Amino acid sequence: LYFHFQEITSLLSLYGGQFSSQQEIRVNSPFWILNIPSEEMARGLMKRTVCAKSIFELWGHGRSAGELYASLKNYPMDKMLPYLQPDSTYKVRIHTFNKTLTQAQKIKKIDALEFLPFSGKVNLKNPEHIFWILEDYGMDPNNVPEEPLDLYFGRWIADGQRELIESYSVKKRHFIGNTSMDACLSFIMANHGRVKPNDIVYDPFVGTGGLLISSAHFGAYVCGTDIDYNTIHGLGKASRKNQKWRGPDENIRANLRQYGLERYYLDALVSDSSRPIWRKGMLFDAIITDPPYGIREATRRTGSPKESVKSSEGSTENHIFISSSYHLSDIFFDLLKFAAEYLVMGGRLVYWLPIYRPEYTEEIIPRHPCLKLISNCEQMLSSHTSRRLITMEKVKEFKDQDQNSYLLDGQYMPYRGHNSFREKYFSGVTKRIAKEEKDNQK
After folding, report:
1. What is the value of pTM for the model shown?
2. Number of separate domains in the chain
3. Which of 145, 161, 177 corresponds to the end of one domain?
4. CATH number of the domain where residue 399 is located
5. What's any one GO cellular component for it (predicted)?
6. CB 33, CB 55: distance < 8 Å
């Protein structure tokens, strides 16, 4: 639910709205009451969200049927009447969360609203106006109350974009890799990044371009870089089952073409994210990425056999591809430093941070003086590991003294714990396999 809350919060801020403190209290409920200034803003919100199912104009709310009816009788008649005219058509529907009602029970609840001044005709197939009764029976399927905890009645305004999850499913995608991002999470990331039409969005670990697709869908121009030549050019072994080699047209451009988004594709380049290739200046409205964790994709960087850490900064020499260690902590610090320098003011960085849960504290979230932490949402990977979707916003102009500011930070050492994530991840896998084998022998 925290993903839902942060997605809606980001979209509200994109359209000029916000949550009130009262609304935040109800974040664990499947039904939220929002203060949205206009129906136009509500429709704009629903054109973007993949987390929210529908939005309604609330006419009444109560903790019992009696309270709901009293609330409806107090709703201003002048706000009701435009949707209850004699020449209009309507229907009333009912949705219950965590409980299933019989058709007879539903009809009884709908008939109890006969005191409302409906004067139009009922049309079940294609009505002008749709009204909903929404009932909340709590979140615990093992403890469902007899009566609902909350009841709502309202006029339906718009549905969210949940169909995007299916239409952009990775299963149907032309070009995929070992770590292609789930379509739902891709759209959530674009929404956290407040991507809007004509933005320029960049992914420094672009892979097969899954994160570019969601941003392009919202009208942004997209580009990316990756160290893997084969992935950028669609060469080598395929990741899809029953397919040995990638086809000649399996590439990022073909993915965007598949969804009619090719016009938003700028390019993808073979490049090492630790050595930015871009000219100085604020170039990107959002940086949305999923760095490698060293589990299914290697963490590597380019280098030359003789180079040292000091000489690598600002060097223009050609580097050959050799196996060079690239610690997770360095990946994230390079990413934050890059975002601080190349994001526009108010631009957002959205990325995934792998976490070993027994050792997690908020202090291990990388920081930068130019970036403000906006949200931190957890997705479980296993009993002992998870990844956190981190959203940061550029709030301060980048200066040369910010280049290595984290090195002066006394909290730098805790961040180094990310470097052992791979070992901790596989130690947990090994323990689980050993336990399963032991249980099977009993």
Report:
1. 0.86
2. 2
3. 161
4. 3.40.50.150
5. cytoplasm
6. no
Q: Check whether residue 382 and residue 360 sit in a common domain.
A: yes
Last residue of a domain, one of 140, 161, 182: 161
Cβ atoms < 10 Å from Cβ of 280: 9
∠ at Cα 178 (205, 230), nearest 5°?
60
Average pLDDT on 86-91 reads 96
Q: Which helix (H) or strand (E) holds 429?
A: helix 421-441
Indicate which CATH number applies to the domain containing 110.
3.30.2130.30
Q: What is the separation, in whole angstroms, between the first and last Cα of the chain?
A: 39
What residues make up the domain containing 111?
Answer: 3-161
Q: In what order do the strands lie in the sheet with 371-380?
A: 265-270, 221-226, 200-203, 284-289, 343-356, 385-394, 371-380
Contact 206, 212 (CB under 8 A): yes
Q: In this structure, are 221 and 292 located in the same domain?
A: yes
pLDDT category of residue 424 using cuts at 50, 70 and 90:
confident
Q: Alpha-carbon distance 231 to 176, whole Å? A: 9
- Helix, strand and coil content of the chain, in percent to the nearest 5, comes to 35, 20, 45
- Name the burial class of residue 195, with classes exposed (0-12), middle (13-18) and buried (19+) by CB atoms within 10 angstroms of its CB: buried
DSSP lists the bridge partners of residue 393 as 348, 372
By the 8 A CB rule, do 98 and 142 touch? no
Statement to judge: residues 357 and 287 lie in one domain: yes
In order of 257, 270, 283, 287, 384, the CA distances from 223 in angstroms are 14, 12, 11, 10, 34
Q: Binning pLDDT at 50, 70 and 90, where does residue 240 land?
A: confident
Torsion, Cα of 223, 226, 232, 235 (10° steps)? -170
**Spatial separation of the C-alpha atoms in residues 191 and 164, rounded to whole Å:** 13
User: Are 50 and 181 members of one domain?
Assistant: no
Phi, psi of 77 (to 5 degrees): -60, -35
